[in-house]
Amino acid sequence: MLGSILAEKRNENNKFFLFVVDNYFKGKELAKRIPVKPEDELMFIDVDPYEPTTEQIDSIRDTILKKKGLPAGVIGIGGGSIMDIAKAVSLMFTNEGSSTLYQGLNLIKKRGIYHLGVPTISGTGAECSMTAVLTGPVKKLGLKCDWTVFDQVVLDPDLLATVPQDWWFYTGMDTYIHCIESETGRFKNAFSHAYAEESLKLCKDVFINEGCGKNAENDEKLMIASLMGGLSLTYSEVGVCHALSYGLSKILGTRHCYANCLAFNHLEDYYGDSVQEFKQMLKKHNIALPQNLSKDWTDKQITDMAEVAYNLPHMWNHAIGENWKEKITIDLIKGLYERL
Amino acid sequence: MLGSILAEKRNENNKFFLFVVDNYFKGKELAKRIPVKPEDELMFIDVDPYEPTTEQIDSIRDTILKKKGLPAGVIGIGGGSIMDIAKAVSLMFTNEGSSTLYQGLNLIKKRGIYHLGVPTISGTGAECSMTAVLTGPVKKLGLKCDWTVFDQVVLDPDLLATVPQDWWFYTGMDTYIHCIESETGRFKNAFSHAYAEESLKLCKDVFINEGCGKNAENDEKLMIASLMGGLSLTYSEVGVCHALSYGLSKILGTRHCYANCLAFNHLEDYYGDSVQEFKQMLKKHNIALPQNLSKDWTDKQITDMAEVAYNLPHMWNHAIGENWKEKITIDLIKGLYERL
Questions:
Q1: pTM for the full model?
Q2: Do A224 and B194 touch (CB under 8 A)?
């Protein structure tokens, strides 16, 4: 359907689309099905070496503007990183200067250009969230505002068919963790709760209930779980696990969903029963997370990670309470990292 | 929060807002809290005599355009009828001619002006649906397109506090019926199912589970149930009950949610267990629906209603199947009305 959806939007601006597609699909069947016209720009992006950076976004924007001017829209086809690249580039096409200027809540000045997302792996919620998380020279923080949200999203569970088992698990756990964190904190509300409740039910069908495992029906369920988990956290907040995970990604470059799993596995003090359930899911799907990672980290690295995590006050405020600074210190966070 | 939300939008078009507010609130506390500025237009509309009509929408549009030109936006504060009036007027400000020209799917030519909804009773899903149902000289059918959807919605469960018990029940049952119909038909899918499943859970908390009844916590749940039920039907379809209900409204002027209850009560052939559960909910909340209504209707009225219902092929197609014309006849539908 993508071709017909885009046909209506082609006449905007300089009348071409920018497609940003996960490099994983280069030369694969999916790539041949992308409705690219001769005037369009198709970029395959390898998201494996690092998560999206402010420099990368600025560079894509500048390259395209110089080559062809303003596109009619940006189409992202891939996982959470590609979703975030598409969302961020759409905003940066209309907001001047470096994207580092806009990392935070409601700092973006102008509506971006049209952007549409086609997720090919489910769990991050990036297809529906109002943030595009970028790693900059100083911080890992999103361009977060109403305009970040995609104008349209195409959900096709068949696209999940070729996801490798381990990434299916890690990415799916991102939405499980979104729900657990959204539910256990002070910003929980009737809206975020309803979304988390249904998303968790779907996650359990996919990962632990009878009939669990990777198959077509569960791919469909996971796609909806991801969407609902993303909406739950959008109206509530994430917590301790995401704070630690951001530190791992910023300092060590660990991929977001995997970093979440590494951290969540050791957060029984905060998310008791859910961590037990998480361990059961690990076992059920034969996923072995590495242990004693911290013995290879320097004290400087651990301190740096703890500082990144500490500087996410909205997460601690949600998870611990307004007086979180009385309970959470850099040393306590270092202790959490040392468990890994 | 309404004042600050609207402040950002005030500079569009002729820089005033049109507020359409349920007449029920005239002189009441809520009316004093509406952030109306001197340049704005505030219309209290009595939705009791009839459901929104095409003539009414055209007249509001023409009156405002003549008096003040194009508003910055339309704000609807009220129940399903007010929501639909706000949505329809927003579209008709930019689409020429009578709204009768646009009753149907994707007939609207241009995006409407900014519109925001503040529901004060929950269940219809009009706050999130992509249709604005209007009764015209020929048909009862919505202006249905992506642009119909509100740009923003403010959900405040405190506004439900003064809803009378009977209308709380009838309107709440609209969302219950949306979910049952969305679930039992061929357009059901993983997306519509997830929304219906959670919405039904919330409806049961509000209307039948331990702790049910009208209170602040359940008002919050019903507000979310309405939203999710509306999203479920938007991505699936309604069925037999809504088809019959449209006939009752079009020919006899029966209010939508009440008409749904009258019809659903006699649809055990189609929605067996759910009709049983509905009857339990009626009993639990001491709601007595009138019986033997049809003995006061002429054959002409019954035939006219059956024709209105028959001419909603998308509902029958969903509920009965593509070959619905082999199974559903005007006479069969007349028989259903005669049960009432």
A1: 0.92
A2: yes
Report the DSSP beta bridge partners of residue B105: B144
pLDDT, tens digit, for every residue of A253-290? 999 999 999 999 999 999 999 999 999 999 999 999 99
Token pair 């509000």 is at which residue?
A: B206
Give the whole-angstrom CA distance, residue B237 versus residue B129.
Answer: 12
At position A303, the amino acid (one-letter code) is T
Task: For residues A196 and A228, give the distance between their C-alpha atoms in angstroms, rounded to a whole number.
Answer: 7
Q: What is the DSSP letter of A145?
A: S
Q: What pLDDT sits at residue B217?
A: 96
Residue that is written with structure tokens 């249905």 in the block: B144
Which residue from B145, B140, B148 is spatially nearest to B105, judged by alpha carbons? B145
B335 to chain A, closest Cα gap in Å: 39
Token match 């911290």: residue?
A294
Nearest to A274 by CA among A239, A298, A326: A239
The C-alpha of A148 sits at a distance from chain B's nearest C-alpha, in angstroms, of 15
Could you tell me which chain A residue has the CA closest to the CA of B199?
A: A194
pLDDT value at residue B140:
83
- Return all residues near A92 (Cβ < 8 A) that are at least 6 apart: A57, A58, A61, A99, A102, A112
Give the DSSP H or E segment for A336: helix A330-338
Residue type, B213: G
Which residue in B has a C-alpha nearest to residue A191's C-alpha?
Answer: B224
pLDDT at residue A93, rounded to an integer: 98
* Residue of chain B nearest A216, judged by CA positions: B190
Q: E strands, chain A, where?
A: 17-22, 41-45, 73-78, 104-105, 114-119, 131-135, 140-144, 152-153
DSSP string, A29-85: HHHHHS---TTSEEEEE--SSS--BHHHHHHHHHHHHHHH---SEEEEEESHHHHHH
Overall average pLDDT of the B176-201 stretch: 98
Mean pLDDT of A218-223: 97
- This model of the complex carries an ipTM of 0.89
